Amino acid sequence: MIKIFHTLILFLLSMPAFSQFKDPCPTLPVQSGISMIYFRGPDFDICQAMDGDHQFFSIYLGSAPDFHQVINHFIGKAKVGNFDGNWYSKDTDDYFSQIAKETLIDISHSPEDLKIEHFVGRLEFEPPPPPKRAPFAHIWINDLNSADLKKAEFILERIEFKGSRELTCTSFLFSTCIYQNSFPELLKLEYLLHPITAM
Signal peptide: which range, if any (predicted)? Predict the structure, then answer.
């Protein structure tokens, strides 16, 4: 029995912990009819909303968006998930002239993020930080027909942003996992243990 136990320990030790980047793309509304394709860059993420092979819109998540605001290109207010912004048109002679309009939104802090005033009760550790997100979301809608353009705007108004690159590490022996976007779950657990006051 001891020999079997030692063999099992050696087997588990020989298995490396594995990690994976979870898809950071925003969650699409149910029955949108659109799928999201994810491309991972060295320090940014690109999410493309597709209807079959037809591209509706794209979202850049990162800290260095290729966005150049031109005031006289303002064409209206933008609503992306819970965030507000402005839509701007692209130059017709621009290389990316197939883009109908674009917006840049600071998503580093979500409007619905809870601000913890204090915990009531005994705490043995500090509460975790808010979810880590990419600082900016650069969204551009392709040059679509009127119906598809309205559909793209409708979907964008209802998407939900996640944490950026939620990294999970799994090991059979060691619980050294890191969850960058686990704050809501931990907060929910803490609320059950200790009542909180949130603004």
Answer: 1-19
Whole domain around residue 70: which residue ranges?
A: 24-164
198 in any annotated domain: no
Retrieve residue 47's tokens: 């999410």
**Does any domain span residue 146?**
yes
Are the C-beta atoms of residues 117 and 142 closer than 8 Å to each other? Answer: no
Residue 110 in tokens: 């979500």
Distance CA 36, CA 46 (A): 10
Mean pLDDT of the chain: 68
pTM of the model: 0.62
Pick from 26, 41, 54, 39: nearest CA to 155: 26
Predicted confidence at residue 91, as pLDDT, reads 63
* 86 within some domain: yes
> Could you tell me if 154 and 80 are in contact, meaning their C-beta atoms sit under 8 angstroms apart?
no
Rounded Cα distance, 101 and 90, in Å? 6
Q: Which residue from 39, 47, 18 is spatially nearest to 171, judged by alpha carbons?
A: 18
State the residue for tokens 């705007």.
153
